[in-house]
Write a structure and sequence with these properties.
11 helices, five-stranded parallel beta sheet, four-stranded parallel beta sheet, binds D-glutamic acid, 246 residues, Rossmann fold, 2 domains, globular, alpha/beta
Length: 246
Amino acid sequence: MIGILDSGIGGVTVLREILKQNIHAKFIYYSDSKNNPYGDKSEDEVYSIVKTIVDYLLDMGCVAIVLACNTASAICVKRLREEYPDTLFIAIEPAYKMVHDYNPKGKTLVIATEGTINSEKFLTLFNKYDNKNTILLPCKGLAELIEEGNDVKINQYLDDNLSKYRDIYNVVLGCTHYPLIKKNIRRVLGDVKFFDGSSGVSKELVRQLELRGITFDNKSFSVDFIDSSGNVSKENRFMELISSDE
Ligand code: DGL
């Protein structure tokens, strides 16, 4: 079994990419909407929340855990790998290197939570590939609005916070919730090119499973969904999003 966790349903954008890889495993997706947002919490708080979920997923029999949350990855993955040396952790990060590979000089906007943007992990990556033409914008509260699914509030938020960046070419979606609002972002910024880490993470998962000789003998895959706030509507929305390209 493979565990996937996020502070809500946003990690579905990562799961969708993973499912394209034809890994015949059982997946268990843990949506921690009770503790959303992670992005405004202290590092110790996020670590302790994520560790509890990791323990739960390991008890359920997971052999690999995907941190489908940039904030949790940025804050926790190093410590988790030290504390659980036998567990395979796959972590996502803002796809800033992709900008360097595809369009190194273009004016770039990186949007993510405060926790991700201020993390040592992200700043190390950013300093390595800094194209001197990039704006780092923490979007406090945006993941919560996406979690809530209120389009009017999302559009208002984007108008208030993004409309001054109209000359942007590249937008790095540094939070797994943000690929769900690409259309809303284009409404404000026009025809920008998006970059996110979900495809890279799914390929890294396959690579690491192969490297460790981990195989699954199910005929196809299945996905179980758990939400920490017990909200039934979350599961319905999550299941719809798995198969949509929203
Ligand atoms: N999906 C999480 C991320 O990628 C949301 C962050 C939050 O809960 O604040 O960072």
